């Protein structure tokens, strides 16, 4: 990926999981990486890994729910580098619980981080990217749950369907202006998002089972980072990973919405066995 050498990348949620693996991979491929995370220590740790391999990282503490903080990040990056070639809106949180046991603040938190956090990135960076005089690519981390609905994950599914819709509409508007947009839709991935998720009500008893299931069956965040690089090269609107997780259920959804409802009810139960 010689075309990534000398590029500038901004990644949110880069302190662990998918964001960390993507930051490390892009840095190895020659990009200057601005890695941000809510946890400042984790952002610094990733920057240390990048520096150890010869990169020049720019770590930052960032709460993506704070629009002013995201705006300040964009201003700082453009002051330093003049352009952004890759924006990866990746920060996200998980939630599991029956809807009647889900608190209103849970809804607000999931939407604020997963959807509004992505919107804040778009709002702060896109106007500047349109003025920078060169092409760019935005990757928004959605989920398999943004393509195929899932019971017991209603707030999370709502937020990720929003990210997919945002990405599709944004690409339609921005592609003629030189900015491509991809919705990254991972399946089961072994990251901290499952461990750190909010579990409500009856389903809280099964949290450990769900985490163990993801450890056994989940793909690695490095697999997702490689999919991000494929997306930067091939520029799809939807990038799924791994194919074996996402494509079968997505095909079912496209063939039969009713059949997809059966999948939506069964899939969470498999993770809790």
Could you explain the architecture of this structure?
The chain has 273 residues and is of the alpha/beta class. Helices cover 53% and strands 15% of the residues. Strands 3-2-1-4-6-7-9 form a 7-stranded parallel beta sheet, with helices on both faces. The chain has one domain (2-271): Rossmann fold, CATH 3.40.50. The chain has 10 helices and 9 strands. The protein is globular, with a radius of gyration of 18 Å.
Helix content: 40-55%
Count of structural domains: 1
Distance between the termini: 42 Å
Overall pLDDT confidence? 95
Task: Give a topology summary.
Blueprint (H helix, E strand, L loop, with lengths): L7 E4 L5 H12 L3 E6 L2 H13 L5 E4 L5 H15 L4 E4 L5 E2 L7 H28 L4 E6 L12 H21 L4 E8 L5 H4 L2 E2 L7 H11 L3 H14 L3 E4 L1 H13 L1 H15 L2
Parallel strand pairs: 1-2, 1-4, 2-3, 4-6, 5-8, 6-7, 7-9
Primary descriptors:
single chain; 273 residues; alpha/beta; Rossmann fold; two-stranded parallel sheet; 10 helices; 9 strands; 53% helix; globular
